[in-house]
């Protein structure tokens, strides 16, 4: 069984090139999120797989930082609309913390590249223009403007004007690049007019302008000798950017387009991610609630064009359970549902793991996330107490169930502390209200029926007279009590939550009670302060 990343690497290996250059790119129009950074993760995975196959390969990342600002990104104020149409590279940092708008939005991604094991060579579109890397391609494009117009017109309902040129100067007057129209040139000087009313000239050597996107994309393929590039499905549409740029690349620049890896967009709780609306989730936010490997797992567990929706809310607990299951199967800690699933799990995790991290130990110590949401709310910042609750409730897998907290290795403690922090962050930022609770120091003044009071007192006696180490056993005996009394299940559990939490709902009752101090539980169920 081969993963789709391996199949791509195998195909690339067969190509007769001295070096494979896997490109990724991102428009710096706001926060870089898990949707528009897919390029980076996919390109990195393909590049690493090629290197494992002994192929000379490099992964590059091109910041499209010379493009015009089309919408004010969240959370910038509306006053930033004065920069609409200007290149990102010419816009100041919104908070004064960085040298520019571009650095402000690039930095959060750069800060976490090592965490995700991403190795890339960054490039800047702005710097490429300023350094003159595009100059020869601008000249060729201007000289062959008619041929490029004809290529574009094959895919347009309304043909381009006969004087249209594939280049947009930055207006000397208003500073915008998406409102200019280049209509003539003489050697390296381009004449243009702008919607602001200005007529001007631009020397292409100044870097104060840019090729139109589909021409620029084709040019940089040849500049860097790019052999493979992932990109969003919008570019992959029939007659879209990739199709047109491929023709321009071949017919204008005499270069074969790179191997395409189109991918489906990621939605957030079913909604399209939007930088301007503030609907996005960044790799940095991911690390606050989950391990880096789990984002790779999210991206690589299915083919790139399959729809992917992410939710950091309740659905996240199901997702992280799936990831933990796959990880434990990989490390032979659990069995997969079938032989086919076993092979699938192992292959996906192999693609997802970050070698620098997993070399430190066999199985990373990541106790069950869902249960930790309960244990943390009981024990707080006391990791030793959390460990005891996990152990008492049989929540530790074979490799850890016979360990004591003080015997955990340094790296095991590191993983444990990281997961507790992730759970804490999830509870604070994304958990719905019904998941949250607080053990009340005093008995809450909430009404109980006589039947509920009797049930609580009998349950108190049961717990007082027995040492339960199995939540399932306590659960069964709780049911015997309520069945004997003819009390409805909902009313019985509500009584427990009322006297302990001061609310009508809470976590699974049996494991919850076992996680609390026994003397406290007995006194509280007996309604004694």
Automatic annotation (TrEMBL):
Keywords: Aminoacyl-tRNA synthetase, ATP-binding, Cytoplasm, Ligase, Nucleotide-binding, Protein biosynthesis. Its EC number is 6.1.1.6. It is found in: Cytoplasm. Residues 449-526 form the Aminoacyl-tRNA synthetase class I anticodon-binding domain. It catalyses: tRNA(Lys) + L-lysine + ATP = L-lysyl-tRNA(Lys) + AMP + diphosphate. One of its GO terms (biological process) is lysyl-tRNA aminoacylation. It comes from the Archaea. ATP binds at residue 275. It holds the Pfam family Anticodon_2. A motif ('HIGH' region) lies at residues 28-36. GO terms for cellular component: cytoplasm. A motif ('KMSKS' region) lies at residues 272-276. GO terms for molecular function: ATP binding; lysine-tRNA ligase activity; tRNA binding. PANTHER family: LYSINE--TRNA LIGASE (PTHR37940:SF1). Belongs to the class-I aminoacyl-tRNA synthetase family. This is Lysine--tRNA ligase. It comes from Methanobrevibacter filiformis.
């Amino acid at each position: 069984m081969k993963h789709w990343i391996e199949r791509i690497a195998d195909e690339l290996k067969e190509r007769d090139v001295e070096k494979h250059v896997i490109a990724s790119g991102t428009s710096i129009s706001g926060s870089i999120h898990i949707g528009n950074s897919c390029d980076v993760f996919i390109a990195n995975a393909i590049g690493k797989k090629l290197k494992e196959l002994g192929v000379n390969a490099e992964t590059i990342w091109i910041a499209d930082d010379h493009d015009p600002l089309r919408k004010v990104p969240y959370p910038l104020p509306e006053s930033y609309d004065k920069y609409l149409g200007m290149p990102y590279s010419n816009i100041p940092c919104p908070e004064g913390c960085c040298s520019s708008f571009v650095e402000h939005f690039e930095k959060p991604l750069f800060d976490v590249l090592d965490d995700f094991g991403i190795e890339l060579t960054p490039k800047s579109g702005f710097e490429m223009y300023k350094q003159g890397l595009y100059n020869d391609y601008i000249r060729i494009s201007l000289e062959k403007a008619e041929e490029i117009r004809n290529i574009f017109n094959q895919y347009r309902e309304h043909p381009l004007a006969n004087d249209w040129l594939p280049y947009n100067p930055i207006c000397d007057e208003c500073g915008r690049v998406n409102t200019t129209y280049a209509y003539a040139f003489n050697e390296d000087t381009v004449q243009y007019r702008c919607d602001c009313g200005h007529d001007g000239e631009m020397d292409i050597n100044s870097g104060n302008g840019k090729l139109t996107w589909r021409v620029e994309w084709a040019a940089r393929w040849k500049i860097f000798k790019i052999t493979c590039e992932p990109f969003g499905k919008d570019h992959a549409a029939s007659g879209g950017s990739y199709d047109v740029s491929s023709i321009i690349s071949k017919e204008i620049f005499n270069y074969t387009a790179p191997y395409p890896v189109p991918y489906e967009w990621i939605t957030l709780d079913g909604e399209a991610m939007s930088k301007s609306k503030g609907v996005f989730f960044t790799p940095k936010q991911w690390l606050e609630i989950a391990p880096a490997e789990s984002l790779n797992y999210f991206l690589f567990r299915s083919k790139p064009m399959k729809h992917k929706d992410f939710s950091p809310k309740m659905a996240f607990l199901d997702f992280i359970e799936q990831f933990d299951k796959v990880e434990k199967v990989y490390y032979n800690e659990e069995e997969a549902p079938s032989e086919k699933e076993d092979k699938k799990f192992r292959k996906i995790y192999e693609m997802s793991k970050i070698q620098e991290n997993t070399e430190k130990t066999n199985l990373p110590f990541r106790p069950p996330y869902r249960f930790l949401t309960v244990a943390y709310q009981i024990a707080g910042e006391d990791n030793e107490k959390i460990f005891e609750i996990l152990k008492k409730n049989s929540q530790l897998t074979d490799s850890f169930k016979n360990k004591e907290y003080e015997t955990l290795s340094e790296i095991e403690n590191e993983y444990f502390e990281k997961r507790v922090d992730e759970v804490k962050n999830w509870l604070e930022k994304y958990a719905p209200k019904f998941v949250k609770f607080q053990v009340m120091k005093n008995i809450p003044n909430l009404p109980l029926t006589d039947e509920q009071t009797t049930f609580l007192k009998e349950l108190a006696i049961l717990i007082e007279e027995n040492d339960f180490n199995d939540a399932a056993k306590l659960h069964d005996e709780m049911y015997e009590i309520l069945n004997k009394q003819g009390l409805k299940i909902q009313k019985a559990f509500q009584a427990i939550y009322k006297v302990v939490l001061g609310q009508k709902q809470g976590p699974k009752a049996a494991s919850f009670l076992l996680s609390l101090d026994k003397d406290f539980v007995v006194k509280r169920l007996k309604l004694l302060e």
